[in-house]
Amino acid sequence: MCDNKTDVDTKTDYNPFEHRKVEKPSSDVRSTTNLIKASLGSGLLAGPLAFANAGWGVGIVGTLIIGIICGHCVHILVKTSRGCCKLEKKPLLGYAETAKSVFTNGPKKIRPYAKFAKIFSEFALVSTYVGVCCIYSVLISDSIKQLIDRYVPSVILPVEYYCLIILGPICLLCQVRYLKWLAVFSFLANIFLMLTYLICLYYIFGSEITLADKKIAGDPWRFPAFVSTVIFAMEGIGVVMPVENAMKKPQHFLGCPSVLVVAMTAIVFFYSTLGLFGYFRYGDVLRGSITLNLPLDDWPAICAKAFIALSIFFTYPLQFYVVFDIFKKHTDRYIKDDYRNVTEVFARIVGVGFCVGIGIALPLLEQIINIVGACFYSILGLIIPATLETVFRWEKLGKFKWILWKNLIIIIFGFGTLISGCTVTVMDIIEILNKKTV
Predict the structure, then answer these.
(1) Where is the protein found, in the record's own terms (predicted)?
(2) Per-residue pLDDT for 6 more than 50?
(3) What's the pTM value of the predicted model, to 2 decimals?
(4) Which of 95, 184, 218, 335 is deepest in the core (most CB within 10 A)?
(5) Which residues does residue 325 pair with via DSSP β-bridges, in sequence order?
(6) At residue 26, what are phi and psi to the nearest 5 degrees?
């Protein structure tokens, strides 16, 4: 930093943890559950398709590297936020508030951009999690449609109709307001997801697996799609600050072992195993979610399709929490206490309706996943955290300024993912639309 104001060491007497007053704090277990569920979901089941794009050798190495990068970016974001709390003597800061604080207390030349940093961060958060909610709407609807088409053949409806059907139940579930209670739904979602994971492994190892036609390294042209999908599956960074801020013992979030280490280890393990063996079993015929490749005549497969729909359904309010939290921060001061509850209920319904509406307009599951991973999560989960740490530690970048070089590599990787991933995905969408018009 450039002056005494930004020297965290002079503020170490202020401990933000001692001043936090959380209405309904979450335990370490609940926080770990929320963090795992915020990342794992439809992205986990897209793992085999990601490996099909990259090849199994590149897929394993790439997943481990991306997992380490994503975990590191979460670590530096939380650590930077805590440093800003000490500087400003505030008990907690959200994602966007951290961005504003970093620039406000940073080098004098960039302080005028503090407000823009906050606005940009909030825009990235809202865009990312609206995209996630759209993906969840389509995935739930796809799973339900498969089951209905198979067992009630007299009722054949497009996936857009199923998006409308699930709108009501999702609106009801998204009325839950506290992370402590959302952890209960996250726990149920994790159970259903693990059951789906085990059923997928059952089908994967239920017959002979051939490796002869499986590629160690895939087409380089498809590698950006692999990176985008993995980033989508690994990242839950928008939920990180709300989870850490709501913890009963936030000091347990970082360190080793910690909530972050346990969560990221679990995420990398589940993703890499299902991605690797799913690709070995189904090869290049994989769809956006591996459950869509399972047979429709066996009860375990039927259960898997139902379980994943339930898992994503119970995860929906956790993702929507990020979107609504930003909306609430900007509107609360304009709403009278007498109308607060009614307004919040109505606003949640409108917000869910907007997210589902986009899902209806763009029901291309694989492509939406790639767009959200490449464009939004690369900005939110890679570029912004690396930038914030660099600015925050500008006067203390380490020997040979290694922090600066490390973060430059992360930022370049983020921009590379954004540009290449979006390019490949847009071309895929154009190809699909052209086929439909032929």
Answers:
(1) Membrane
(2) no
(3) 0.82
(4) 95
(5) none
(6) -105, 145
| Rounded CA separation 376/123 (Å) | 10
Cβ atoms of 25 and 197 closer than 8 Å = no
Q: Which residue has the tokens 């690369």?
A: 378
Q: Which domains does the chain have, with CATH numbers?
A: 34-437 (1.20.1740)
Angle, helices 56-88 vs 223-234, to 10°: value is: 40
Whose structure tokens read 């997992």? 67
Measured in whole angstroms, the distance separating CA 97 from the mean position of its chain's CA atoms is: 20
Q: Is 254 helix (H, G, I), strand (E, B) or coil?
A: coil
Query: What confidence tens digit (pLDDT) does each residue in 104-123 have?
Result: 999 999 999 999 999 999 98
Rounded CA-CA distance 36/28 in Å is 12
Q: What is the DSSP string of 198-236?
A: HHHHHHHSSS----TT--SS--GGGHHHHHHHHHHHH--
- Residue in this structure with the two tokens 């999560």, named with its chain if needed: 377
SS3 readout for 359-408: HHHCCCHHHHHHHHHHHHHHHHHHHHHHHHHHHHCCCCCCHHHHHHHHHH
